[in-house]
């Protein structure tokens, strides 16, 4: 059955749904379904925006150079620290890379990020992080008197401009942070000062984004990997570009054949609203967001917004003159913005019962709404439509990178709660890729999106290792503190040298 025609429901039947609700379901299918021709149109526009972002004038998509220059071979060696600063937790890891190709050992500890830190001072933030690292090092190396300096890869997943891999200027806080005096400044010097105050034998070798880490970590265990993606609270991707194809770096006179990982920041795709099939609900989400007109793509596909799209549709149906759903019900809880997240939709799609009893319980427990069977059928179809649209649109970004690079086959490493936990997300994205590329029915998919390795841990450690290896080889482009890294991590040199295959 061609996509775009009304598909059969996965479970149950719409035969008992009244005509007025059936009409609404058909309307929702019309506005949320993304047909094959539209997928291709979006992908082609995506290719142009990716290319434009690499030029001096730029475009909607920033296409940030990361100064991670090359893939791992699988034979990297040494011991490295990795730091992952999230919105809720702080994770400190120690990653050991043995001689065996593609192998690693990791030990890690997780620390809660206190809420008051998010609106405190920069000094308090870096001090707390340094204290957590200090605690980690003391616990795991308590018997070592003269601990050698450990290189650190720092996963700092906030928008940052990098002229060097070991430094980064914060563009703006996200994830609930609002610390004055940090935006527009290099975050590395105050962070390293906090480490030095505590006498920690640690030297930051690389500041990275989680997409870049996902790309490198996945490529370490699977050499067919060419793209790293995040499909979670937000959405993003990274891939390797040749320096000769990055006009905005032409003034640096880099070897045109040298690879450079590009952090796309593709959540900003189509901020000009030229191709994405936005609904009235997408427009409302953008209008009421802290930054209207920004992150258009992300607001249609990322986990942060899926539940809100669902909620807005239900409120709209209730507030029509006919009160199409939940008549006589108190929808006070449903009217609270962002009261539902993507896990709510996941639970609806995973309901295994014909009578949707689990969905009924979900509405009663979380929203104090007693829904009828026809209302539950509409809610399930709506969840399917929103989840499917997110997966299909996300596939356009992957397809665009492949088309831009001329890749006809590759693996994509994907991380994030939506990819890993949302029902059918992977299968729906794979189907979209088949339609975009018109692969023959029955053939094995040449472009496959797989669950990623730990990008924020293993990936950060690997990029630290690759940075030190570049210094040893005399390639210091995009590395500011070359001398400090050489002196501070000299003990790593023997270990980071490649082992012959």
From TrEMBL:
<keyword id="KW-0418">Kinase</keyword>
<protein>
    <recommendedName>
        <fullName>Phosphotransferase</fullName>
        <ecNumber>2.7.1.-</ecNumber>
    </recommendedName>
</protein>
<dbReference type="InterPro" id="IPR019807">
    <property type="entry name" value="Hexokinase_BS"/>
</dbReference>
<comment type="similarity">
    <text>Belongs to the hexokinase family.</text>
</comment>
<keyword id="KW-0547">Nucleotide-binding</keyword>
<keyword id="KW-0324">Glycolysis</keyword>
<dbReference type="GO" id="GO:0006006">
    <property type="term" value="P:glucose metabolic process"/>
</dbReference>
<dbReference type="GO" id="GO:0005536">
    <property type="term" value="F:D-glucose binding"/>
</dbReference>
<dbReference type="InterPro" id="IPR022673">
    <property type="entry name" value="Hexokinase_C"/>
</dbReference>
<feature type="domain" description="Hexokinase N-terminal">
    <location>
        <begin position="25"/>
        <end position="220"/>
    </location>
</feature>
<dbReference type="InterPro" id="IPR043129">
    <property type="entry name" value="ATPase_NBD"/>
</dbReference>
<dbReference type="GO" id="GO:0006013">
    <property type="term" value="P:mannose metabolic process"/>
</dbReference>
<dbReference type="InterPro" id="IPR022672">
    <property type="entry name" value="Hexokinase_N"/>
</dbReference>
<feature type="domain" description="Hexokinase C-terminal">
    <location>
        <begin position="226"/>
        <end position="466"/>
    </location>
</feature>
<dbReference type="GO" id="GO:0001678">
    <property type="term" value="P:intracellular glucose homeostasis"/>
</dbReference>
<dbReference type="GO" id="GO:0005829">
    <property type="term" value="C:cytosol"/>
</dbReference>
<dbReference type="Pfam" id="PF03727">
    <property type="entry name" value="Hexokinase_2"/>
</dbReference>
<comment type="pathway">
    <text>Carbohydrate metabolism; hexose metabolism.</text>
</comment>
<comment type="pathway">
    <text>Carbohydrate degradation; glycolysis; D-glyceraldehyde 3-phosphate and glycerone phosphate from D-glucose: step 1/4.</text>
</comment>
<keyword id="KW-0067">ATP-binding</keyword>
<dbReference type="GO" id="GO:0008865">
    <property type="term" value="F:fructokinase activity"/>
</dbReference>
<keyword id="KW-0808">Transferase</keyword>
<dbReference type="InterPro" id="IPR001312">
    <property type="entry name" value="Hexokinase"/>
</dbReference>
<dbReference type="Pfam" id="PF00349">
    <property type="entry name" value="Hexokinase_1"/>
</dbReference>
<dbReference type="GO" id="GO:0005524">
    <property type="term" value="F:ATP binding"/>
</dbReference>
<dbReference type="GO" id="GO:0019158">
    <property type="term" value="F:mannokinase activity"/>
</dbReference>
<dbReference type="GO" id="GO:0004340">
    <property type="term" value="F:glucokinase activity"/>
</dbReference>
<dbReference type="GO" id="GO:0006096">
    <property type="term" value="P:glycolytic process"/>
</dbReference>
<dbReference type="GO" id="GO:0005739">
    <property type="term" value="C:mitochondrion"/>
</dbReference>
